[in-house]
């Protein structure tokens, strides 16, 4: 077998390829700064497998319940879950997620009242028969007691665009994808610390921006009650798809 060309950056005639024209468009900007990858230690395969199995077994037990105990949860746990969510990758590192953490009983009651008003309209008027049938196995309705039972509500907003000091707009990139990854890390963090959460999406959600005083450049994405499950907590009798139904190896 022939040895590979040690200088694959050069063309067939040995000349360096021309620089792509787009490079000139950012030549006026400072050079990007890089630092060493922090805190990485390569593990042997046995350690990796043990960690992966343990994490999967913890996450496999994750279920969505609507039955929350009213016991208080320390604020530091919520902070750590949000910090974990904030480690998510994001388009151009814009980090377009904003979290509002609420433990005030009065504000939670206002959110529940507004959510139930919208949900009643949705279930009664907006929802198609197909949608209603899809939700039926979950046993949901417009009554959302979890919004006041859970000690914390964490509302996740997507920053659709940034605002510069002069009020002009700064574009954010891949906002939905970035915020979705952050939401997943938040849910995983809550599971790892032994709490439960629910990804609630009242429809429409514009009232949350108004109630919480958020900017017009933000859009509410999820309301996530966080707390301990009630001793009698139940979940729908549902099964997750097996591996072979959700993966393809190569073509």
Please outline the major beta sheet.
4 strands, antiparallel
How many beta strands in the DSSP annotation? 6
Coarse shape:
globular
Radius of gyration: 24 Å
Q: What do the pLDDT scores average to?
A: 93
Percent range for β-strand residues: 5-15%
- Content-based structural category: alpha+beta
Span from first to last CA? 27 Å
Helix content: 25-40%
Order of helices and strands: HHEHHHEEEHEHEH
Strand order within the widest beta sheet? 1-2-6-5
Please report the number of helical segments. Answer: 8
Low-confidence stretches: 1-8
Keywords:
251 residues, alpha+beta, two-stranded antiparallel ribbon, 8 helices
Question: What does this molecule look like?
Answer:
By secondary structure, the protein is α+β, with helices and mostly antiparallel strands. The protein contains eight helices and six strands. The protein has helices at about 45-60, 75-85, 105-125, 130-135, 145-150, 175-190, 205-210, 245; strands spanning about 95-100, 150-160, 160-165, 170, 195, 220-225. A four-stranded antiparallel β-sheet has the order 1-2-6-5. The protein has a two-stranded antiparallel sheet with strand order 3-4. Strand 3 and strand 4 (about 170) form a beta hairpin. The protein is globular. The chain starts with about 45 loop residues before the first helix and ends in a 5-residue tail after the last helix. Mean pLDDT is about 95; it is low at about 1-10.
């Amino acid at each position: 077998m022939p040895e590979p060309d040690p200088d694959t950056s050069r063309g067939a005639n040995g000349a360096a390829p021309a620089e792509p024209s787009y490079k000139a468009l950012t030549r006026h900007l400072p050079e990007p700064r890089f630092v060493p990858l922090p805190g990485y230690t390569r593990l042997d395969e046995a350690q990796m497998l043990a960690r992966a199995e343990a994490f999967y077994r913890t996450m496999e037990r994750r279920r969505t319940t609507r039955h929350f105990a009213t016991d208080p949860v320390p604020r530091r746990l919520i902070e750590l879950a949000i910090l974990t969510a904030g480690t998510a990758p994001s388009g151009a590192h814009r980090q377009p997620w904003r979290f509002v953490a609420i433990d005030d009983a009065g504000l939670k009651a206002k959110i529940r009242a507004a959510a139930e008003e919208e949900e009643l309209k949705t279930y009664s008027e907006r929802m198609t028969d197909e949608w209603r049938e899809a939700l039926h196995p979950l046993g949901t309705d417009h009554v959302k007691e979890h919004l006041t039972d859970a000690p914390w509500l964490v509302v996740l907003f997507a920053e659709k665009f940034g605002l510069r000091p002069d009020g002009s707009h700064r574009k954010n990139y891949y906002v939905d994808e970035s915020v979705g990854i952050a939401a997943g890390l938040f849910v995983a963090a809550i599971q790892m610390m032994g709490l439960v959460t629910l990804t609630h999406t009242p429809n429409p959600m514009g009232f949350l921006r108004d109630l919480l005083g958020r900017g017009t450049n933000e859009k509410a994405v999820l309301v996530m009650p966080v707390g301990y499950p009630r001793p009698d907590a139940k979940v729908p009798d549902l099964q997750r798809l097996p591996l072979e139904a959700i993966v393809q190896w190569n073509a």
